[in-house]
Backbone:
């Protein structure tokens, strides 16, 4: 169904965004697989996770061609853009992108995730802004029910705030096709 | 879809399945990429009334585990790379006392410190290792999070059945990935159910001793008993999965993370008319020789796909294949293989561009 990579700086909530996605996706599809680069990654270093969502048995857990790339900074965009399939989706964090000429063979959406999250007083929720933009851009899952599931994900962890869902919704609203 | 699953890392599935199998003693020492096992046990073992110990090192942890096993408990330890090396001496002692234990080796790549990333070059230390002396370990190689749980649960039963060390041979990729997992039912183990354990006995009743069995039953009784055990385990415990071998031209042989990539390679190669198949050993000892019996005449060769410098599994494949067909090595050392790389390799094998591998 979808081969996805989330990438950005360590500390931007890349791995968490991936875990939220599989938590919800697993309720609707047969198989999910989440892998991450582990090891010497630290705050400010690079972080990425790969996600495969499929009703077929998942073989290779590391996607070789991407349906969706979610890039929370510019180095991550450049690292993975070449792996995106024709007609695939790329969601970038406009707050941290310089002057980039985007390719024509993919659908690029931009959202100022870092600025929006900071503006909402929830700087750590830039990843949720990105998820909102992604749901709007790709239609991968029903955007509203994803929002509800996102709430319950954080409630299960015992540290939810209404601003989480707000950031997600702002991502849906403010994402712009490039 | 009903929520009959949990989302877990491979390491967490191993630890939870062990608890559900009645494991009530864990001792170990942290090392990437298996530390979540230790972490999970540190959080959850106490809830089950068991004992968790982070030993001062791997050797001490194994000595504690020896004691708990001698008392009849279901016991587990886990490590990786250089940490697993340190367990070898005690594996030999567990064997010499005929004691059951479950050990996890989550492979990282390289010799010495090597890397902390996934590897498959601890095949020999697992299938041939276990310290000095003549012994066999049953070695189970999961290729998914679900299988991490399933095989760990099974491992405790096999360890008890044969009074033998059983190893879960996983790798940094399988250990660290998150997938859906169906957990087995929880059961309690009766620590007092055996007649061989150190339990204490009333005055005047002969007490059990723990000692090298050769000191207790002597030669040749010991060697006969052990040889029978090896033969029974070899005959009874071979496990594998065959994928599309019925009409294959080339049969890939791979376990763990490599076998996952091979499954994609088989699927994609067949779309472009290249008939690949796969034999995935689930037990790497006993190696599933039965899987190589009665393969169709269409099979022109075997391709071992491993993350190592030289092939470590090649010898086992040659013995299983009885030299019926050539063996090729798609060896990706520090890198996780890619499906495209495997397909390109196989295309070159079929067009005669790649020579068979000499196993050294």
Residues:
């Amino acid at each position: 169904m979808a081969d996805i990579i989330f990438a950005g700086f360590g500390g931007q909530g890349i791995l968490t965004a991936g875990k939220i996605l599989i938590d919800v996706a697993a309720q609707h599809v047969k198989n999910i697989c989440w892998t991450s680069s582990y090891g010497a990654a630290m705050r400010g270093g690079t972080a990425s996770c790969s996600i495969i969502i499929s009703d077929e048995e998942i073989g290779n857990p590391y996607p070789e061609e991407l349906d969706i790339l979610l890039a929370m900074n510019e180095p991550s965009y450049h690292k993975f853009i070449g792996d995106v399939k024709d007609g695939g989706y790329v969601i970038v964090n406009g707050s941290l992108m310089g002057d980039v000429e985007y390719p024509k063979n993919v659908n690029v959406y931009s959202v100022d995730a870092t600025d929006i999250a900071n503006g909402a007083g929830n700087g750590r929720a830039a990843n949720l802004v990105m998820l909102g933009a992604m749901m709007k851009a790709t239609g991968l899952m029903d955007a509203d029910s994803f929002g509800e599931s996102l709430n319950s994900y954080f409630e299960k962890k015992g540290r939810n705030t209404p601003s989480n869902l707000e950031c997600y919704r702002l991502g849906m609203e403010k994402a712009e096709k490039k | 879809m009903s929520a009959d699953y949990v989302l877990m890392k491979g390491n967490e599935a191993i630890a939870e399945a062990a608890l559900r199998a009645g494991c009530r003693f864990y001792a170990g020492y942290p090392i990437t990429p298996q530390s979540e096992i230790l972490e999970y046990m540190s959080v959850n073992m106490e809830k089950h009334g068991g004992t968790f110990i982070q030993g001062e090192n791997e050797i001490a942890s194994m000595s504690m585990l020896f004691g708990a096993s001698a008392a009849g408990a279901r016991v587990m330890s886990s490590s990786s790379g250089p940490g697993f090396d340190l367990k070898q001496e005690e594996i030999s002692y567990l064997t010499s006392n005929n004691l059951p234990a479950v050990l996890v080796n989550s492979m990282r790549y390289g010799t010495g410190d090597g890397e902390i990333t996934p590897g498959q070059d601890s095949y020999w230390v697992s299938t041939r290792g276990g310290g000095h002396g003549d012994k066999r370990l049953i070695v189970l190689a999961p290729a998914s999070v679900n299988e991490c749980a399933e095989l760990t649960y099974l491992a405790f039963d096999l360890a008890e059945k044969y009074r033998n060390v059983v190893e879960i041979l996983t790798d940094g990729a399988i250990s660290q990935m998150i997938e859906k997992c169906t957990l087995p039912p929880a059961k309690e183990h009766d620590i007092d159910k055996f007649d061989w354990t150190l339990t204490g006995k009333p005055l005047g009743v002969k007490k059990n001793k723990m000692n090298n069995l050769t000191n207790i039953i002597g030669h040749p009784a010991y060697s006969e008993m052990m040889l029978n055990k090896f033969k029974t385990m070899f005959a009874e415990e071979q496990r594998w999965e065959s994928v599309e071998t019925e009409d294959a031209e080339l049969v890939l042989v791979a376990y763990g993370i490599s076998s996952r990539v091979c499954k994609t390679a088989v699927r994609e190669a067949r779309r472009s008319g290249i008939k690949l198949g796969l034999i995935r050993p689930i037990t790497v000892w006993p190696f599933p020789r039965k899987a190589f019996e009665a393969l169709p005449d269409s099979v022109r060769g075997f391709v071992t796909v491993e993350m190592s410098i030289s092939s470590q599994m090649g010898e086992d494949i040659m013995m299983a294949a009885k030299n019926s067909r050539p063996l090729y090595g798609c060896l990706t050392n520090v890198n996780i293989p890619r499906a495209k790389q495997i397909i390109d390799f196989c295309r070159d094998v079929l067009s005669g561009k790649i020579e068979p591998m000499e196993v050294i």
Observations:
- Chain B has two domains: 6-185+201-236, 241-350.
